[in-house]
Amino acid sequence: MEQESMNERMHELLIESGLQAYYDAQEAQIKKFAELIVRDCLAQVDKMRDSFEADGESKEALGAEWIGYAIEKHFGV
Q1: Which of 64, 9, 62, 61 is nearest to 37 (CA)?
Q2: Inter-residue contact 10 to 34 (CB < 8 Å)
Q3: Residues 5, 76: contact at Cβ < 8 Å?
Q4: Considering the entire predicted model, what is its pTM?
Q5: DSSP secondary structure of 60-75
Q6: For 76, which of 1, 6, 22, 72 could close a Cys bridge (C-beta 3.0–4.6 Å)?
Q7: Between the ranges 10-14, 23-27, 31-35, 52-56, where is the mean pLDDT highest?
Q8: Looking at residues 48-57, what average pLDDT do you find?
Q9: Using CA atoms, how far apart are residues 5 and 32, in angstroms rounded to an integer?
Q10: Do the Cβ atoms of 17 and 43 come closer than 8 Å?
Q11: Contact 77/42 with Cβ under 8 angstroms?
Q12: Are 46 and 38 in contact (CB under 8 A)?
């Protein structure tokens, strides 16, 4: 299955949320907001990975790294 860009997926979620009218008026700000949310989530995954590495839990650290990669790929960041 082809990966959607961040803008396409976020737009679908925006429509689902009922905020389309706001999107039409504030497109750039909403796109930036969505990107910031995804990047903040990725930062949390990185913290978990670093914590696992510090504790010597290499399998868990690798798992967290893969989760971050999957999120990045899914949202196209």
Answers
A1: 9
A2: yes
A3: yes
A4: 0.71
A5: HHHHHHHHHHHHHHHH
A6: 6
A7: 52-56
A8: 96
A9: 14
A10: no
A11: yes
A12: no
